[in-house]
Design goal:
Blueprint (H helix, E strand, L loop, with lengths): L1 H17 L3 E3 L3 E4 L17 E4 L3 E5 L3 E3 L9 E4 L2 E4 L4 E4 L4 E4 L4 E4 L9 E4 L2 E5 L5 E2 L6 H12 L1 E6 L4 E4 L5 E4 L4 E2 L9 E9 L2 H6 L5 E3 L5 E16 L2 E2 L1 E2 L3 E6 L8 E7 L5 E5 L5 E2 L3 E6 L3 E8 L6 E2 L2 E3 L10 E6 L6 E3 L2 E3 L2 E3 L5 E2 L3 E10 L2 E10 L5 E3 L4 E3 L1 H9 L3
Parallel strand pairs: 1-3, 2-4, 3-6, 4-7, 5-8, 6-9, 7-10, 8-11, 30-38
Antiparallel strand pairs: 10-13, 11-12, 14-18, 15-16, 16-23, 17-22, 18-20, 19-20, 20-21, 20-28, 23-27, 24-25, 24-28, 26-27, 29-35, 31-32, 31-36, 33-34, 36-37, 37-39
């Protein structure tokens, strides 16, 4: 019995050491070496992702050693705010550890201790030392480049013979029926030989976000309003990098777990801000038992949609991100809880706030606000749940770094 008790204690200790998580410094001026300075109520340990948010100033008054064994190789320090070292103190990290300091971040010695032996070491190599003075963050945010990279990976490629035509079935079971001798060049001349077909399928909110393809439709009055999507699809056909045109429409059948007779067809156009706007084609898809069928008469983005309806009074909402973000390097989405295929975008930026000129948000609706950016090879993300109030301003916390896999997990868990 005594041996079993010791084993349980060791098991708890081992799991604590090996399975740690994000640990975030609290707002304001805090001390690294005080457990009350961290959201988990403990000090950072090996393998933690240690995050100093933009509104935190963390002082280090005792040296920290996170280099004792192989578990420390996974340690990561992400600095958005300030990290201040007192005289002679250091952070020692192991070989595989990473330190990232983002735009507006600062690493520095205290005024009275500047020039002494304060340092951050990675495998005994100096990453920063007190004599460097202030090390300021230099990471640049460029969310559009990250989205382009993800969209490239989302593409599916096929080859068919233009004279013979072909039936293409995608990874999600969408079927494209391209008739024989139905593709032309821009001059209307029929094409022969092999052609390349590119397809992108978007079925849920996480894919909408990472591809930057919100469901915002253009109303007759020129305003934008959210759409409920039955599936967004992109189609491109080319030969030797020259885009082709369908002489006749291409029949497309899209699988759906639940069909809706109110759905219509929309075409998507990308504007100068890389935002997509969906326009009605005044046609409806054919409703099958478990799918929609429509004729695609132009290439590019196509969407099966209907306008979102809610009888409650609508209001504008505003979202405030940390000061380094604006419409050029961040995107803000509004996800309405319980609607898997509905994602609005706040596509305007006024007086430091993300907004939309249309009042499309029902007062009392439960939502999740998602802010997305990137730095280098990492996604940056912040998610906040709230209930819509009239003309409310929603303040978001720092956008924290995530791998693509973690991003997908976060987004898939939004109701």
């Amino acid at each position: 019995m005594k041996q079993r008790f010791i084993f349980l204690i060791l098991s708890v200790f081992i799991s604590f050491e090996f399975f740690s998580a994000d640990i975030i410094a609290k707002n304001g001026n805090v001390n690294w070496n005080n457990v009350n300075s961290w959201d988990l109520g403990r000090l950072p340990i090996c393998s933690d992702n240690i995050i100093i948010p933009g509104n935190s100033v963390v002082t280090l008054d005792a040296s920290v050693f996170l280099n004792k064994d192989e578990t420390c190789d996974k340690t990561r320090l992400d600095i958005f705010g300030k990290l201040i070292f007192l005289g002679g103190k250091k952070i020692a990290l192991s070989k595989g550890a990473k330190v990232n300091y983002y735009k507006n971040a600062e690493i520095q010695s205290s005024v009275q201790d500047k020039g002494k032996s304060e340092s951050i070491e990675i495998d005994k190599t100096i990453f920063w030392q007190g004599s460097d003075n202030i090390k300021k963050g230099e990471k640049i945010y460029n969310v559009n480049s990250k989205i382009e990279d993800y969209t490239k990976k989302s593409k599916q490629y096929f080859t068919i013979n233009a004279q013979e035509g072909g039936v293409i079935t995608t990874a999600n079971g969408t079927v494209y029926n391209i008739k024989p001798n139905s593709l032309t060049n821009e001059k209307g001349v029929l094409i022969s030989g092999n052609v390349e077909v590119e397809i992108i399928e978007i079925k849920n909110k996480s894919e909408m976000i990472l591809n930057h393809k919100a469901t915002m439709g253009l109303l007759a009055n020129g305003k934008m309003s959210p759409l409920v999507s039955g599936g967004e699809n992109y189609l491109k056909i080319s030969q030797n990098n020259n885009e082709l045109l369908p002489k006749e429409g291409i029949e497309v059948t899209v699988k759906s777990q639940k069909v809706d007779e109110d759905m219509e067809m929309f075409n998507g156009e990308i504007n100068e801000k890389n935002q997509i706007n969906w326009t009605q084609t005044n046609t409806k898809p054919k409703i099958n038992a478990d799918s929609y069928t429509y004729i695609q008469r132009r290439l590019g983005w196509c969407n099966i949609d209907k306008f979102y309806e809610d009888t409650r009074p609508n209001t504008e909402i505003f979202v405030k991100l940390p000061k380094e973000y604006d419409i050029n390097n961040a995107i803000v989405y509004v996800s309405f809880d319980g609607n898997e295929n509905l994602l609005a975008e706040l596509s305007q930026f006024q007086n430091g706030l993300f907004t939309n000129r249309n009042a499309f948000s029902p007062i009392g609706a439960k939502i999740h606000v998602i802010a997305v950016s990137n730095s280098g090879n990492e996604w940056l993300c912040s998610v906040k749940a709230t209930t819509i109030e009239e003309k409310m301003i929603i303040e978001m916390n720092d956008l924290l770094p995530n791998s693509e896999e973690t991003m997908l997990t976060i987004l898939k868990n939004i109701p």
